[in-house]
């Protein structure tokens, strides 16, 4: 039986990847290089500092630790300028209805995100009230594929990992769920999220009934 559902944020609840891409690209451009939307895929689910390392590597730029922190701070400010303009219209299709039906069925809801900005984002899209627990980049010491973020979510909702289902759009996130002994619903393409128990392309048409059949 399923007693809690744990949700990734970017790519599952809302598509913040487009804003991360704009802000990281501005950083790259100011350092006199560029990268593609295809490369940006590799940054999904990865922490801010790990993302910076990858991008600097693509541009062949080396910086001191101090400079890295300064650029990461700049990027986050640019990103937050975009986040501040987000509206509830950006919530991905079917998400609010699915979360409402989880509530009606007494199933706990937690967030498990790498982002340090998750609460602000949930506030902007008016989804903060749906969550019984929020575990994000401010709480964790180990990023996905380590299961820490989801194990903390299970604990915060008082549910055993085996009774949790994780919703993830990133391969590393699905791996984190499985490493934590949880079921995983991939949100995206079945060709990419091969380790997920099932894959959905959208929450539209997904239901608590289908969840309980997993
Ligand atoms: P921040 P998720 C992740 O969110 C994003 O997918 C990833 O691109 C980003 O670098 C990371 O959050 C950290 O975000 O800079 O806001 O702390 O998919 O784990 O919800
Ligand atoms: Mg994600």
TrEMBL record:
GO terms for molecular function: beta-phosphoglucomutase activity. The keyword Isomerase applies. Keywords: Isomerase. Pfam families: Hydrolase (PF00702). Transmembrane segments: none annotated. Belongs to the HAD-like hydrolase superfamily. CbbY/CbbZ/Gph/YieH family. This is Beta-phosphoglucomutase. It comes from Flectobacillus longus. The gene is pgmB.
């Amino acid at each position: 039986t399923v007693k809690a559902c744990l949700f990734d944020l970017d790519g599952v609840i809302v598509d913040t990847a487009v804003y991360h891409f704009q802000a990281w690209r501005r950083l790259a451009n100011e350092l006199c290089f560029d990268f593609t939307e295809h490369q940006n895929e590799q940054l999904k689910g990865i922490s801010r500092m790990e993302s910076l390392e990858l991008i600097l590597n693509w541009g062949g730029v080396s910086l001191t630790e101090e400079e890295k922190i300064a650029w990461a701070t700049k990027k986050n400010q640019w990103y937050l300028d975009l986040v501040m303009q987000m509206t509830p219209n950006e919530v991905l299709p079917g998400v609010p209805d699915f979360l409402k039906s989880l509530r009606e069925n007494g199933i706990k809801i937690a967030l498990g995100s790498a982002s340090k900005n998750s609460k602000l984002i949930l506030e902007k899209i008016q989804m903060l009230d749906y969550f019984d627990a929020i575990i994000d980049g401010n709480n964790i010491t180990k990023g996905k594929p380590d299961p820490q973020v989801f194990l903390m979510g299970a604990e915060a909702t008082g549910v055993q990992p085996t009774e949790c289902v994780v919703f993830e759009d990133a391969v590393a996130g699905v791996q984190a769920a499985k490493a934590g002994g949880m079921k995983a619903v991939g949100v995206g393409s079945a060709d990419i999220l091969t380790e997920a128990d099932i894959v959905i392309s959208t929450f539209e048409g997904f239901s608590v009934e289908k969840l309980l059949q997993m």
